[in-house]
Input
Amino acid sequence: MHRLADGLSEIGGALDDPLEAGLAASQFCEAWALPEPFDGRDLEAAVGVPVVRRLEELDDDPSLAMLRAMQVGANPGVAGEAAAAADRMVAAGRVDPAWWPDAAAIRPSRAARLGEDVFGDGDTVLVEYADGAGRPFTVGVFVDRNAGGIATGLLVGGSIEDHRAGLERHADRGEEFGWIAVHELSLEDAGRRALTALRRTAATFEPEVGDDFAALHAFVVRRLADVASDVADDDGPAVADADERRRLVDAFVAARGAGPWTPPGAPDAMRMVAEEAVGFAADHAGGDPLRWSPVVVEAFLLDWLPRRAALPSAVHGSVPAIVEAWVRWIAERRAMPPRAIELLVDAVGRHAPAMLEALGDESYWGPAKTIVMRALDAGVDVSDPDAMRAFVERRPDDRDA
Output
């Protein structure tokens, strides 16, 4: 710990503004931003607190500067310990770094949501702050709806107006880029959204996050504590219940039930595929079965259907046309712009060949799908719980017979 503290003290002596200081402290906390699965160690207590104590023992100006930096940008536990240690050093005669008064005056000023609502794959929640010299900065949390509403990206950047100006500079990139906008939020709402997403990330097994997520995590959480003191535990995004799902499937089949996508000998194909689409979007793409985007289409076709959907082989060839009918119907219900419909249909066509190949490839199948497909091949009524139970309880050799 002494060598680590000595290195941090050296860094502290080179700091000269509040934002730089906070980010340096946040990097120190990177090791425990996302705990390793099944690792019971409390690294904050085992590493963070002893380092704070060592910096206080060093009792020099660079060490005091690093303690103040931790107060600005370390996670709340270390920040509290560092604040108490720094205050004791000042009371004993040490002088705070020149940038500390501006850092101590950091306050939140406004908040916004940066995103688009046509596809709604995710939003960046922005909270803007200003230090004592009036210099603005934002912390941002990207809330990924396709990953269950967890936070998968963090940023620290310029003001909200800087973000708005950046959108305007790139307005010629295409119609879909123009769907992105800045929407004002209250500070309390922004803090709740951001901290809820971060809590979901912490509860996720090996979440896929951006490269700088861990390094920025402590600073972002520390600053969000200024706008939302706590967030209640949640069970993730609200999802459609069974009745709502059934009504949606019934409405789709009624609206699109006559067409070339209904194959001979498989009159229930549309219902089968629609039920899979509703279940996937509701349970694995943010909770709303009506929210479809090219990203959702890709995940549905290339992952969900091959791995989880036990569709009879007679239905496979009709799946692309049914999914296209589904996304067109969803787009009509949501009054999506023509360009959005074009992108959805293009995603279906682009991924359909790989999906059709994977549907018949048993190496893609999950365990549950494998059992159901074996039951279908054996002529078992998979909708009958007793028949399925009897099939599963048979010896493996009997099931394959």
About this structure: The chain has 18 helices and five strands. The chain has a mean pLDDT of 90.
